[in-house]
Amino acid sequence: MAVVHALDDYYLAITLLITIGYQLFFFTIAFSLKFDKLTDFAGGTNFVWLAIITLAFSGHHNPRQVVCSLFIMLWGARLSGFLLFRIIKTGKDDRFDDMRDKFFSFLGFWVFQMVWVWTVSLPVTVLNSPNVTKSKQPDFGTGRDIAGVILFAVGFILESVSDIQKYQFRSNPVNKGKVCDVGFFTWSRHPNYFGEIIMHFSIFMIAISPAAYGYVTGQAYNALYTTILGPFFLTLLLMFVSGLTLQERPGAKKRYESGNHWESFSQYTKRTSILIPFPPQLYEPMPTILKRTIFLEFPIYVFDPAKHADQSKVRGREAEEGHNEGQEAGQESNEGLPNGQH
C-alpha cells in the first residue's frame, strides 16, 4: 500500500482534525439529549481510530508499528468498553451534574478530552508517520522492545483487573460505604492509575527505538523523542488534574465530615501507598519523608481534619448521632418496663 501524505508528514494535523470532528459529533449528541453514556466511550474509541488510520496511511506495517498501534487500540477499546458498561449500570455520570445544561462549560470538558486524546496518541501517531517510516527500522525484539512489552502487560493487568475488583466490591450491597482494600488495592490506593501510566510509557519506550538505535536521525529523531509529551501529559493529568487531586483529599474530607467509615479509611491510607504498589507491611512504618517523596504522596493529597474539614458539619453530625443514641437508649429502657408503665 502506498504511503498517504495527509497535510503534514507527521500526521499531526490530520489526527487533530479527526479528533476534533469525532469529539464534536459525540458532544452534539450528549448535549442535545443530556446523555452521559457516550462521553467516555467517545474518548477511548478515539484512540482506536487514530491508531487504525495512521497505521493504514503509513503504508509500512513493520512489527514495531503494529505492536504499538495494537497496544493503544487494546487499551482504548478496553477502557471505553468498561466505562460504557459501568455508566449503563449507574445511569448517569455525576461529574457533569453542574455542567450538563451549560453549553460552554460542557463543551470545555469535550475540548479537554480532544487535547487528551491527541496528545496521548503522539507516540503512535509519529511512529506511523511518513517522516519516520521512510527510514530503515531496527528489527523488532531489541531490549527496549522486550522491556516495553513486559511493562505494557504489567500495566494492562493492573488497570483492567483493579477496575474489575473495585466494580465488584462496590456492587456488593454489603460493602456500601466501605473502603475498597481488596486485590491490588491492598498494595496501592490507585493501582488502575499506575497501570495506565506505565502502559503509556511502555508504548513510548517501544516507539522511540528507531531513534534510540540511530536508524532515524534529524528532525524525525527529535519528533520521536518529543512524543514523551504523551505519557507525561497523562501522568500530570492523573496526578494533578482529574485523578488523585479529585479523589484523595476531597474523598477523605467527605468521609470525615459524614463519619462514613472514617477510622478504617484513615488506617487504610496510612498503610497503603497512594500510587506505586508496595507491601503494606513495609509502607506503614516507612518514614513520612519517603512517602512524601519517593512514593509521591505529596502534601496536596493529604487531608488534615484540623485544616481542611468543615467543623460545623462534623458537630452537626455528632449532635445528630448523639440525639439518635439518646432516643435508642430511651426506647430500650421503655422496653424493659412492665406493661402499662411505658
Describe the structure.
The protein is an all-alpha fold and 342 residues long. The protein is built from 17 helices and no strands. Helix 1 (12-33) runs antiparallel to helix 2 and helix 3 (63-90) runs antiparallel to helix 8 (191-207). It is globular and about 85 Å long.
What's the quick description here?
This protein is mainly α.
Largest sheet: none
Unreliable stretches (pLDDT < 50, length at least 5) are none
Roughly what is the average pLDDT, rounded to an integer? 89
Please estimate the helix content: 55-70%
- Distance between termini? 91 Å
Q: Which shape, going by the Cα principal axes?
A: globular
Class computed from helices, strands and strand pairing: mainly alpha
Total DSSP E strands: 0
> H/E element string?
HHHHHHHHHHHHHHHHH
Strand content: under 5%
Which radius of gyration do the C-alpha atoms yield? 25 Å
Count, helices? 17
Fill in the keyword field for this structure.
single chain; 342 residues; mainly alpha; 17 helices; 68% helix; globular
Topology, element by element:
Elements: H1 12-33, H2 39-58, H3 63-90, H4 103-120, H5 122-127, H6 130-133, H7 143-171, H8 191-207, H9 209-212, H10 218-226, H11 229-240, H12 244-258, H13 262-271, H14 280-283, H15 288-292, H16 305-308, H17 311-335
